[in-house]
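Fill in residues.
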């Protein structure tokens, strides 16, 4: 996701990246973010450390999927790109307050703690948000961490519910879409064919990631989740979506983190999100390889 975004400076003016505790603890996610920025040659993008735990819960991590480093499959080192001193939530608030109304798009692909906390602390930021495009949730695909909850939403369901009700345009890229974008062996070989540092790094991460999800789902490759958000910004016609009401379960021990999607409009609850449900997977991977090959 970051490599695709960083490869598109003409379309995307990246104001900053805020790390959050998620797949691994915060001290690793912020380090990994800086490594990826260096790999992409984008030392101009500031990186901030955000929240080290969810709003009201103990942190759940996913080393079993992504490895102890969070990005197993590539060389890990201490990056030279500095971590900004400002807290990530303060950066979000300050940046939005200084922006014009409807000027900034937020693209969270982890737990929504940073953004949810920013909204609670400073509601005045809301009119400044043009759109939020997030990866998380599931409807037909159930869940990937519990039987009914996707990881990003499960880690901080209270923050997710805050974002669902923020009143700003919201597009959700759920497992329903990302499970259609499989990193098959053929597609890995296409990425390997980029013959670059970026291509080699992506192949390394994907081959590690593929071991877990291919076995879990019995598929020909693992789903590629997070880059779908950037692909949506670059080429929305690759996707099909529907305006729905989406709520997050925060109380039930059995279904906490579940995204309840009123896909067929069976309730009178207001439609608060563009729920994506289909992707042109071949078009998505063509876009990915084209941009990362530049």
């Amino acid at each position: 996701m970051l490599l695709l975004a960083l490869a598109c400076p003409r379309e995307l003016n990246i104001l900053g990246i805020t790390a959050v505790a998620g797949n691994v603890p915060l001290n690793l996610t912020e380090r990994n973010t800086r490594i990826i920025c260096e790999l992409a040659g984008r030392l101009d993008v500031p990186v901030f450390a955000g929240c080290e735990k969810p709003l009201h819960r103990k942190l759940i991590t996913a080393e079993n999927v992504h490895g102890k480093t969070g990005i197993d499959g590539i060389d890990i080192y201490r990056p030279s790109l500095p971590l900004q001193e400002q807290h990530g939530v303060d950066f979000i608030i300050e940046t939005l307050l200084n922006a014009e109304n409807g000027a900034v798009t937020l693209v969270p692909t982890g737990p929504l703690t940073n953004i949810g906390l920013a909204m609670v602390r400073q509601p005045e930021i809301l009119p400044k948000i043009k759109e939020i495009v997030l990866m998380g949730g599931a409807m037909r695909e159930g869940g990937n961490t519990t039987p009914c909850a996707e990881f990003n939403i499960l880690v901080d369901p209270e923050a997710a519910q805050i974002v669902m009700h923020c009143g700003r345009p919201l597009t959700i890229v759920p497992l329903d879409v990302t499970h259609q974008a499989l990193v098959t062996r053929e597609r890995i070989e296409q990425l390997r064919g980029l013959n670059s540092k970026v291509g080699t790094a992506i192949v390394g991460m994907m081959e590690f990631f593929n071991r877990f999800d291919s076995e879990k789902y019995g598929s020909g490759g693992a789903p590629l989740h997070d880059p779908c958000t950037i692909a949506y910004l670059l080429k929305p016609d690759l996707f099909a979506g529907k305006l729905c009401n989406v709520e997050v379960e925060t109380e039930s021990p059995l279904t906490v983190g579940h995204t309840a999607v009123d896909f067929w409009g069976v309730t009178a609850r207001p439609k608060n999100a563009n729920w994506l449900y289909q992707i042109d997977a071949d078009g998505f991977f063509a876009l990915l390889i084209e941009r990362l090959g530049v």
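Residues 12 and 292 are 14 Å apart (CA to CA).
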